[in-house]
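Sorry to interrupt, but I need a hand with the structure work. Go ahead and set the record down below:
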Amino acid sequence: MVRAIVNDPNGGFTARALTRDVNGAKAKELAKLGAEVVAADVDDVESLKRAFDGAYGAYCVTFFWAHFSPEKEIAEVQSMAAAAKAASLQHVVWSTLEDTRSGCLSAITACPPFTANIKSRTLTAKARAITFSAISECQLLSY
C-alpha cells in the first residue's frame, strides 16, 4: 500500500507508516520509499491517536499471530477504532478475515456465540473483533 501511494504523483496523499520501532529495518525501508514513519503501538491508544492525527484515512491490521488471543484481537481493534474516531478519519480500511462459524454470512451479520461451530479460531477471532469492536464502537462504515 505504501508503494502504491508514494508511486502515485497525482494521488494527493502521503503515506504515513506506523511502527513500534522507527529505527527498525522495515521502518527505515518504508522511509526510504518516501513514507512518513511514526511511532505507535496498538496497545497504546494514545499513541495511535497521535499517529492518526491529521491523516485522511488509515489501513488497519491486527496481529493475531503474535498472541493467538481473541480477547487481545478485540482490544487491538478497539484501540484502532477509538483512535480513528478521535482523529475524525474520513476513510478506514480494516484488514480482516471471514468468520468461519456456521450461520455467519459476513462479518456484519448476527452470528452465533463465539464458541459455536468454529472452523478456524484465527479467522473467527479476526472477524469477531471487527464486528463487535470497530463497527459497533464508532460506526465508521458508511454505505
Remarks:
- Strands lie at 16-19, 36-39, 57-61, 91-95.
